[in-house]
Automatic annotation (TrEMBL):
This is HAD-IA family hydrolase. GO terms for molecular function: hydrolase activity. InterPro entries: HAD-like_sf, HAD-SF_hydro_IA, HAD_sf. SUPFAM superfamilies: HAD-like (SSF56784). The lineage of its organism: Bacteria, Pseudomonadati, Pseudomonadota, Alphaproteobacteria, Sphingomonadales. NCBIfam families: HAD-SF-IA-v3. Keywords: Hydrolase.
Length: 205
């Protein structure tokens, strides 16, 4: 067993690990009334609805359907599609620094993200640290999303490493559990400082 416990590469999630993500960051700019904002984000443009795009459903189809269901909210639903990057206020600096530190040590880096294919095209150029990753599996492109076991099998083939050689970092416990069921190592992300401790303890930093 190596100093790193057999880990050969580190795989990051992106949303809420590398970047902040909050639908309200956009819609609180457009909806002044707190009660209306709560209703809109829990009923119209919800994370559960958004997940359909992560899983591969075309954005235009989703938006048209939602606007038909909530015609009074049409302009706000359009904003979800055209101003999505405003739901991502910025990077989580402490995690970005850890990516740079791992890269400097020559640790192979990869990512798996639940992200819609259409929205990914507009987002990726906004985050320079993504250039550190040798490959990124994007759920919307592959039409399979975490925690489906198929996305982990796909990632192993793409990344060229077996599950026991991979450490996966994600903020969602179900996604970590699915990775561990596939034989991967897992870190449930809550804070950059705790991740740094874990990486150091595994001999990766």
């Amino acid at each position: 067993m190596s100093q790193t416990g057999g880990i050969e590469a580190v795989v990051f999630d992106i949303g809420r690990v590398l970047v902040h993500w909050d639908m309200r960051a956009l819609f609180r700019q457009l909806i002044a009334d707190p009660a209306e904002l709560d209703w809109f984000c829990s009923t119209v443009v919800t994370e559960q609805w958004h997940y359909q795009h992560d899983a591969g459903r075309p954005l235009a189809e989703m938006v048209a359907e939602r606007k038909a269901q909530f015609p009074a909210c049409a302009a706000l639903i359009d904003a979800y599609a055209t101003r999505f990057n405003e739901t991502i206020p910025g990077p989580i600096e402490g995690t970005v620094a850890l990516v740079e530190a791992l890269h400097a040590r020559g640790v192979p880096l990869f990512a798996i993200t639940n992200f819609g294919a259409d929205l990914w095209q507009g987002f990726r150029p906004t985050l320079p640290v993504l250039a550190r990753f040798r490959d990124i599996v994007v759920s919307g492109v592959e039409r399979v999303a975490k925690p489906d076991p198929a996305i982990y099998a796909l990632a192993e083939r793409r990344f060229g490493h077996s599950g026991p050689a991979l450490l996966f970092i994600d903020d969602n416990a179900a996604n970590i559990a699915a990775a561990q069921a596939a034989g991967w190592h897992g870190h449930l992300f809550t804070a950059p400082a705790l991740l740094a401790q874990d990486l150091a303890g595994r001999g990766l930093l």
